[in-house]
Amino acid sequence: MARSIAARLVLTVPVLLLVSLLVFSLLLLIPGDPALVILGPDASPVEVRRLSRELGTDRPIVVQYAAWLGRALAGDLGRSPRTGQPVVAAVGERLPPTVELAVLGMVLAIAGGGALGLAAGWRPGSLIDRATAWLATLGIAIPTFLLAILLILGLSLRAGLLPPSGYVPWRESVAGNLRAMVLPAMTVAATMAAVIARVVRSSVLETRGELYVVTARAKGLSEAAIYLRHVLRNALVPILAVTGLQVGRLMGGMVITETMFAIPGIGRLAVDSVLARDFLTVQGVVLVMALWVLLANLLVDALNLVVDPRITRV
Amino acid sequence: MSITRALAALAAFATLLTAIPLDALAQTRGGTLRVGQARSPVSLDPALGISLHEFHVLYSIYDGLVGYDESLALKPALAESWQRTDPRTYVFKLRRGVKFHDGTDFDAAAVKWNVERILDPATKARVRDLDVVEAVEAVDSHTVRFRLKSPTGLLPTFLAERGGLMVSPAASKRLGPDLGRNPVGTGPYRFVEWMADDHITLERFDQYWDKGLPHLDKVIYRIIPDESVLVTNLRGGQIDYVADVPPKDLGTLRREGALTVEQRPGLGFYWINLNSGIAPFNNKAIRQAMAYAVDRPAMLKSLYFGAGTAATGPLAPPVWAFDPALKGYPRDVTKAKQKLAEGGMPNGFTFKMLVGSTPMYRTNATAVQAQLAEAGITAELEITETVKVLQQVVARTYQASSTIWIGLNADPDFVLYPLYAGQGLFNKDRYKNPKVDELLDRARSLDKQDERRKLYQEAVATIVDDAADLWLYYPDVTAAMSKKVRGVSLSADGRVRLRGAWLEK
Amino acid sequence: MPGVRSPRHLLLTPAGILVLALVALAVLAPLVAPRSPNVQRLDASLGPPSWAYPLGGDEFGRDILSRLVYGARVSLWVAGLSVGIALLLGTAAGLVAGYRRDWSDLALMRIMDALLTVPSLILALAIAAALGPGARNAAIAIGLVYIPHFARPVRAQVLSLADREFVAAARALGVPETRVLFRHILPNVLSTVVVLASLNAGFAIMWEASLSFLGVGVQPPAPSWGAMLRTGYPFLEQAPWVAIAPGCAILLAVLGFILLGDRLQQALDPKLNETISRSVT
Predict the structure, then answer these.
(1) What does the buried/exposed string (b/e) look like for C60-98 if buried means 16 or more CB atoms within 10 Å of the residue's CB?
(2) By CB count within 10 A, which of A87, A104, A291, B341 is most buried?
(3) DSSP characters for B106-134?
């Protein structure tokens, strides 16, 4: 087990390199001199040339990439030309709210989706089953921002139950923080919950027909005990698989969610930076996100091996 | 004492009570005011920032040498008085006993240091008003003398804007470029923290020179980019004050009655900037055709929900040289077509209009496009980022652009000179009219408002006749706040001033 | 294609009807729309649904119904272009990687990994922003980001097919490699590709809307559903129809394509379910 994990760790390096190369190459797509874009139109040609030299944009792109990579490995992701703040600091500041939102979202998705999937699988063909199927399809099909709008309209503006947006830091108020996170977490969790519900349902159906469940029933164990012991444990496997696959999607959902609920996370930083053509920050953010996804996948795979040693590695 | 005398005394006492303004009576100390705004400042260094909404924060942290009262007339601030001793010299007497937030003293040396910092090319200051200053000297610890390159009556006004906001020299030397994120001034509130794109926190400066002020303990500026979310937060009580309320929400907020809504005419205008330096807009008749084709009142009513005034020229009503008798161009498609023929293009023509990323620019451009089409003029909209638009505008390769002009104060020079003078910052190679140049230069050098007003009104009449640009409408400045918020007055420049603010308990 | 049931059967399902209606709307837009999508009547700004404007008027007093109909064109065009790009490039990559199974496989799959590791919305946003505003650039961005969603399942399919007897037999008979690829493997992969195309067309429509909502992609005054939602969203309180109409349209279109994809999956080969859900979701 340790060997395969180590192997995976080694493989992440080339992937990360490719990711950084990918993002860096986006700079090639920007028409015109990045220095001019940054300094704005009223810059003198002398200033533009100076910034160009500072940024290194007057050198061939391969050299630029190498320089950036070198600095990145030393922990320096540069300074945002937009705000003057070091990229590492900017990302570091924004990470906690995003991590919190991601964790809350995943918890909600696993709990909600898992519960629905279990209920649906227990009574296939019932109302719960069909309702779950529809909800799941809806959850996958609905655009994130539409869901956010509906949630804000329904639960916040009309019912006044929850704050419509904003982020309350832990230091100020734990209760306030959690209250403000409810709607965003629901928005983020929707798609993942839908997929989990589907996947858990089919896993439950599969498990129920398995031999050892039949045997257990014959032994006289109650339905509930069977469920808890065997079905749930088997359902964990696909849940983990889905979580791993969905972590990347989750990030995308968070971008829109953070923007709509005004949460100061890295998703919003990404959008603001992209729209402001602050590609240096974008690179930093994307790198961090990629790292996160890779680590999450690794974690999921490791957990997978623990949960079900029957899985063969591909 | 007879009953009558007693009653009379009682009546007198009651009248006395009602004469005392409620505000002054009930001022309470303490509390945190939460202000919401859609755009985040780029820098809190007054020399480096670029937009109006930064002033909402700047005015809490810094004082200027000169200030504005509610009607935007100049009044003393850090400078107690000033005198123009000859056409090119001003002497300012500074207030005593003023300290910066870091404890250092505010004095003439600090003023000299600030002005020289702005003029120093290494600072890369965006504000260029003070370029007219040749030299600044500290005559004594609280007297400063300015020598100017050319005779201008505008120095005090310049010193009420960014150029006059005083930064602590000690702090600036210590922090260098980080000053923009760690500002130190003399203002009523001192800087505490700035969480990028989320909030800025300020707290009361106990040694503020205006004793008794400020009343609030803390001010928090929340950055909420989405305007609808901003308003929702205001209604929900998560924030207490919003400047720049979206016009579509004004009616709803007033009807709900839970908030105080303020609205008054503003200084700026939405407009279509025409490049009169190149074809087709170097032709006066063509420009006039455009002016006749646009339906300003309809746009104001439908697109801006009536929160403004239809424009006649580049000066908005609160500007003291505004001429209410000036007739602009009413919508008249027939006249428009006539002017087209006069200009040699009876079958209309096609041109490109640049539009930046702000939604209102696009909205205006879309409506204007449809209206021009009725006169046979085809406008092709090129919607791109504001930076790209600015690049083309500066390079003068554009034909037209839909944008806004933000008015800073009530002095007509601030609008007319940069836009319509031959040497104007935004006018090189664009609009040329020697008569207007002469009027504007003369008006600048004077300092009596009545004399200047006559000159400006003549200049504007010419500019409007020339149809130099398409001025659409003057948006009102607005603010909405919780009923507990007092002591914040809305001026025509729309900038939030929290010096006297207090919260009712 | 092996294992296909009658296509007519598929088209008559609710999903099939939805998609057909969408395509018809897009193609026949000038005939279906009651008026031009760009004519403004400022005095009818934000007017509620009425006889003249069945779905109400937007902020310029334009007919929302007509704009919705013409908007179908933009949505379908973007979906088509992006799925086309992803399909062609992704299928090619998957075929090569799955069949050759050498260094090219390793390299291609690592590139796919990289593409998948970056959160797709950010990547699409960055590409679209770098290329500039407009429907075409949004479509290119979405297409590029979706390549792995075709490449991976296709590769998995090819891997399982390449071991089957008829391929071994063809090889034994001396059939050249490319012929094996095109004549024998490709047709079997097609069913996977068709299902994926349908599913991803739905997502592409959703993404176009998301990108427009964030400010890149199709720009107003072009009638695109995403752009309509973006400009209509601020008026949610006083004129909800301006945003609800395109919102519903987007939802229905996405649902239609996804459900159709599900149906196709069931009809063509239930075993595909595993392959697809494991490598796509």
Answers:
(1) bbbbbbbbbbbbbbbbbbbbbbbbebbbebbbebbbbbb
(2) A87
(3) P-HHHHHHHHHHHH-GGG--S--GGGGEE
Task: Report CB contact under 8 Å: B363, C59.
Answer: yes
SS3 (DSSP) at B64 = strand
Give pTM, 2 decimals: 0.80
Q: Does C92 touch chain A (CB under 8 A)?
A: no
Written as six digits, the tokens of A157 are 């503006």
Touching chains, A (3+ CB pairs < 8 A) = B, C
Identity of the amino acid at C107: A
Cβ-contact B348, B319 below 8 angstroms = no
Give chain A's residues under pLDDT 50.
311-314
Q: In this structure, what is the dihedral angle of CA atoms C262, C266, C271, C274, given to the nearest 10 degrees?
A: 20
Per the CB < 8 A criterion, the answer to whether C218 and C224 are in contact is yes
Contacts A14 to C, Cβ<8 Å: 110
**Nearest-CA distance from B428 to chain C in Å?**
29
Phi and psi for B86 in degrees, rounded to 5? -150, 170
Where on the phi/psi map is residue B159: left (φ > 0), alpha (ψ -120 to 50), or beta? alpha
Query: What is the C-alpha to C-alpha distance for residues A304 and A239, in angstroms, rounded to an integer?
Result: 10
Length of chain A: 314
Could you report how far apart the first and last alpha carbons of chain C are, in Å? Answer: 25
Token pair of B305, please? 């929900």
HSE-CB at B137 with a 13 A cutoff on CA atoms is 6
Please state the three-class secondary structure of chain C as a single string: CCCCCCHHHHHCCHHHHHHHHHHHHHHCHHHHCCCCCCCCCHHHCCCCCCCCCCCCECCCCCEHHHHHHHHHHHHHHHHHHHHHHHHHHHHHHHHHHHHHCCHHHHHHHHHHHHHHHCCHHHHHHHHHHHHCCCHHHHHHHHHHHHHHHHHHHHHHHHHHHHCCHHHHHHHHCCCCHHHHHHHHHHHHHHHHHHHHHHHHHHHHHHHHHHHHHHCCCCCCCCCCHHHHHHHHHHHCCCCCHHHHHHHHHHHHHHHHHHHHHHHHHHHHCCCHHHHHHHHCC
Q: For residue B392, what are its two tokens?
A: 């083309």
Looking at residue B322, its pLDDT comes to 94
Residue type for position A185: A
How buried is residue B275: exposed, middle or buried, by Cβ count under 10 Å (0-12/13-18/19+)? buried
Instruction: State the smallest CA–CA distance between residue A18 and chain C in angstroms.
Output: 6
What was the ipTM of the complex prediction?
Answer: 0.75
Between chains, do A264 and B197 touch, taking CB under 8 Å as contact? Answer: yes
pLDDT band at B459 (very low <50, low <70, confident <90, very high): very high
Q: Find, in chain A, the residue whose alpha carbon is nearest to that of C213.
A: A145
Query: Percent of chain B at pLDDT above 90?
Result: 64
Contact B227, B242 (CB under 8 A): no
- CB atoms under 10 Å from CB of B335, counted, come to 17
- pLDDT digits 0-9 by tens, B305-348: 999 999 999 999 999 999 999 989 999 999 999 999 999 998 98
Could C60 and B227 be called an inter-chain contact, meaning their C-beta atoms sit closer than 8 Å? Answer: no
Phi, psi (deg, nearest 5) at residue B389: -60, -50
Handedness of CA B62, B68, B74, B80 (dihedral sign): negative
Contact status, residue C210 vs residue C138, Cβ threshold 8 Å = no
Cα B132 from Cα B150, distance rounded (Å): 7
Break chain B down into helix, strand, coil percent, rounded to 5.
35, 25, 40
A156 lies within 8 A of chain B by CB? yes
Residues C233, C243: Cα–Cα separation, whole Å: 5
Please check whether residue C190 touches A, CB under 8 A: no
Q: Inform me whether the C-beta atom of residue A187 falls under 8 Å from chain C C-beta atoms.
A: no
What SS3 class is residue B387?
A: helix
Q: What is the rounded distance in angstroms from the CA atom of residue A72 to the CA atom of residue A67?
A: 9
